[in-house]
Amino acid sequence: QHGVQSDANDDTQWTTHITVADNTLRQNLYTGVYVVRARHWVVQNNVIEDNNFTNATGGAGIIIGVAKQIRVEGNRITDTRTGGSRTQAQGIRVNAVTAVRETEDITLRNNVVTNHPSDGIQVTNASGGTIERVLIQQNLSTDNGDWGIAVKDVVDGDIKKVVAIGNFTARNVSGNIRMDPSDGIPSGGIP
Length: 191
Fold this sequence. Notes:
This protein is 0% helix and 49% strand. By secondary structure, the protein is an all-beta fold.
């Protein structure tokens, strides 16, 4: 279902100290790399493309959630298809759903993220889930159907200490970088 998957039985168990490197993860049913209930992972130098082959809700190149101390770097994440054929919703999605301090200490660096129907890189939470300390640095995010980089704080104040620095974004439909107001940046994003 996923190219590489980590998903323990509940939120008190984690897979730890895993490296996923130098792989091609293509046309998996849902996600290229599923980093959930994980600690101390490195995902680097992979080619991840055309995943979410079934067009299920939520499929992406890389999904990170209920995770701490995760480093994603040097990956090429794209959907090579065109128009409505694109189903790998986001390149990288960092999320939290229900727990306080659920997802934290995440580094996204030097990734190339292109041609997704939604955001290239997305950091988002839902009811009660919190995310802290995310570094988004020196990524290239272009030609996506929504934002190049989007921090979407669904519950105000529950995404904290996100830094986006030195990234290149262009030709994204909704805009290049969006940081929600509760994170201290106007809703119009950063030009």
